[in-house]
Amino acid sequence: INHVMHNGGLYKRPFNEAFEETPMLVAVLTYVGYGVLTLFGYLRDFMRQWKIEKCQNATEREEQKDFVPLYQDFENFYNRNLYMRIRDSWNRPICSVPGAKVDMMERVSYDYNWTFTYTGRVIKDIINMGSYNYLGFAQNAGTCQEAAAKVLSQYGAGVCSTRQEMGNLDKHEELEKLVARFLGVESAMAYGMGFATNSMNIPALVGKGCLILSDELNHASLVLGARLSGATIRIFKHNNMQSLEKLLKDAIVHGQPRTRRPWKKILILVEGIYSMEGSIVRLPEVIALKKKYKSYLYLDEAHSIGALGPSGRGVVEYFGLSPEDVDVMMGTFTKSFGAAGGYIGGKKELIDYLRTYSHSAVYATSLSPPVVEQIITSMKCIMGEDGTTVGKARVQQLAENTRYFRRRLKEMGFIIYGNEDSPVVPLMLYMPAKIGAFGREMLKRNIGVVVVGFPATPIIESRARFCLSAAHTREMLDTALKEINEVGDLLQLKYSRHRLVPLLDRPFDETTYEETED
Amino acid sequence: MDFKHVKDYIYWLYYQYLLITCSYVLEPWERSMFHTITVTVVAMVVYTAYVFVPIHVRLAFEFFSQIFGGQPESRV
Fold first, then answer.
1. How is A259-310 classified by DSSP, letter by letter?
2. SS3 annotation, A403-458
3. Are the Cβ atoms of B34 and A85 closer than 8 angstroms?
4. Residues of A in contact with B12 (CB under 8 A)
5. Which CATH superfamily is A22-128+389-498 part of?
6. Is the pLDDT assigned to residue A1 strictly greater than 50?
7. CB within 8 Å: B22 and A86
8. pLDDT, average across residues A159-185
9. In Å, how far is B28's CA from the nearest CA of chain A?
């Protein structure tokens, strides 16, 4: 049952998003599992404290025992007692380009994951369902690689300076003009690291006396940038426009906390696709709210640029909106372009201001030339300017893969979160033992997946996250689906009762809106 | 041949028990300790049920039949 929403014509296409509720029995059993692990964790900690067992994690030296404690023992309780036991599903070393198939070095552990040794064997051709390789540009052969190799032989690999000093290459200028043209904005600026783009530029845009309204599930880089800026931060419920409107109203009506002065600026921080949930932001509604209450919008398109929209221009094109409505369009080159770095696009005055006042521009090294060339070539390929239709074919292949994969998984009976069109597919696991079991079983069957547990997700909602790619062929997806089906039966992961919870949406009324939820 | 089927099924049930109670991630000695405790508790529950449930059921049955039947039982 797909919940279709028509909010006074704001949406030109159906917005199908679903988050099926956790079955009660599964939730209870998950808590039972965590209870058992907690008890055994206390037992092991007791044994370590009384030296019955050797303590293998970090502790102070004998001479420092009387000092103020350096390591907070209780904070690392979860880390020592659960994460260590299933640690072999993370930090797996790969030894080839992370395309649709990847090679991995095999490791074993003889002391329950405290140390690993390499057996020397390389597991070849693992189907890669974990890399953010949405358009398949992570390649070591092809036009992008040749162009990057040429630039490498011309410019070298290092830049050895920051943007403001001697690190501003003509390649960077070319890249920025291209990015501005791609997004449909006046001007853009590129930075060396996607995380640093958020965390170093939000402090340059807002300061004390400003208000930041940030989504519940925003990425750590946005949260860090918001905290560093010193502005007041208020959180609204994930993708919930009623919650956002209530906060905006309160902000306008009551102003700053003690002095009741109006806020200097109100900045709304949202992401295009939320990578842990697979949900897409309700951009038409956010823009309508932003215009009504005269605030600014910062859109982080890390996962959605290149992955959404008929020609890969991101979530703004997906909803058919104009890029001029979004004040600050931020994105990264890591995911769809197969490179590294981030960009910010917007009006010329804004970008000129950021060129002078951004911490990243002043202190961080600029992008490396071969990486810049990879971005330029891949972006031209997506736009179709290199003369072929490869880019368009990839965007369409990704959309097809997304729809097919999600439909098949739902039919099999797994609980899948998120929007129908997002290439990030979270499959719910819930129980902590199944996190480790799923990772290991899938690796045995030659499929590499990313499983996510507590600190990144709520404690009972652990999940396996699949990232689809345009490089996955139909056969690879079928193989992967067959194995997922088998592992799902083996581990009893098919929790879905095909009862989609209808989305809590109410018609958006421009004039009177009294009904809000607390 | 059918015996193998049954053995596989029982092993699969054991695997589910390990996953649900998170003993899948425990070390072997912890697992033995957990199994011992679980088996002990379950055995005690079963024994208590065996000893007490029939008597309680019979008493409850007599109590309710007295209310609804309305006839005092003869003492002789």
1. T-PPPS-EEEEEESEETTTTEE--HHHHHHHHHHHT-EEEEE-TTTTTTSST
2. HHHHHHHHHHCCCECEECCCCEEEEECCCHHHHHHHHHHHHHCCEECEEECHHHCC
3. no
4. 490
5. Aspartate Aminotransferase, domain 1 (3.90.1150.10)
6. no
7. no
8. 92
9. 11
CA angle A165/A169/A170 to nearest 5° reads: 140
Q: How far apart are CA B28 and CA A331, in angstroms?
A: 47
Q: Is the pLDDT of residue A415 over 60?
A: yes
Residues forming a β-bridge with A212: A233, A267
Name the phi and psi angles at A280, rounded to 5.
Answer: -110, 140
| CB A276, CB A452: distance < 8 Å | yes
B15 to chain A: closest CA residue = A491
- Looking at 3.40.640.10, 3.10.290.10, 3.90.1150.10, 3.90.180.10, the CATH number of the domain A143-383 comes to 3.40.640.10
Q: Which one of A39, A81, A85, A430 would you mutate to disrupt binding with B, by most B Cβ within 10 Å of its Cβ?
A: A85
Q: Per the structure block, which two tokens stand in for A301?
A: 């398109």
Kindly compute the dihedral angle of the four CA atoms of residues A403, A406, A412, A417, in this order, to the nearest 10 degrees. Answer: -150
Residue ranges per domain, chain B? 3-69
Q: Which of B21, B24, B34 sits opposite A32 (nearest CB)?
A: B21
Average pLDDT over residues A428-437: 92
| pLDDT per position as a tens digit, A101-146 | 999 999 999 988 889 999 999 999 999 999 999 999 988 888 889 9
Q: What is the dihedral of CA A390, A396, A401, A402, to 10 degrees?
A: 130
The domain segmentation of chain A, as residue ranges, is 22-128+389-498, 143-383
**ipTM of the prediction:** 0.82
Q: A382: closest CA among A440, A417, A333?
A: A333
